[in-house]
Amino acid sequence: MGQNRRSYRQNAYEEDRRAYRGGNRGGYIHGNTARKFNIQEQWEQMPERKLHPEIRKNREKARHMSAGYVMFLAAALCAAAFILVNYIQLQSDLTTLTKTVADMESELNGLKLSNDEEYNRIISGIDLEEIKRVAIGELGMGYAEEGQIVEYENQEGDYMRRVTGSGK
Fold it and tell me: How confident is the model at residue 107 (pLDDT cuts 50, 70, 90)?
């Protein structure tokens, strides 16, 4: 039994040494440490493969661009640049118009507020009792009597005009 243990350890040691020296090409490493691979060296040591001539021709074609294709790409680039510049200009115009509308709305609100304040000032300044006194006393006006009120029915809409034949 002692011999088996010793030979097992010896075999494991030999396998580790072979793996370290590159003798183990399968990639399996015994032990608890991983070795560092030098990919650059392995890549340089690999033999160069010969390509099929058709594959080589196709790759060469793919590397070169014809004049027509370059012109098409240039035209597409110009069209995209033109569209982009116009889009940015439209966005700028829209922003300007939005600010103008906002300014006009705030001006309108200010005018409405000042108009309402002026109206309320005028209304509060009117003395209805004074108007009634002047109308009745100085102008000779009076309240309507029973026969003076005439009611009309308008069948066409909500607007009516009455014209009297007095000629004045």
Answer: very high
Number of domains comprising the chain: 2
Contact yes or no for 30/11 (Cβ under 8 A):
no
pTM for the full predicted model:
0.41
- Clarify whether residues 72 and 7 are in a common domain: no
Place of tokens 């099929």: 52
Largest CA distance in the chain: 148
User: Please, where are the H alpha helices in the chain?
Assistant: 2-21, 39-45, 53-63, 67-125, 128-133
CA 49 to chain centre: 52
For residue 95, give its domain range. Answer: 67-141
| Structure-block tokens of residue 48 | 């160069």
Helix, coil or strand: residue 44: helix
Q: What does DSSP assign to residue 155?
A: S
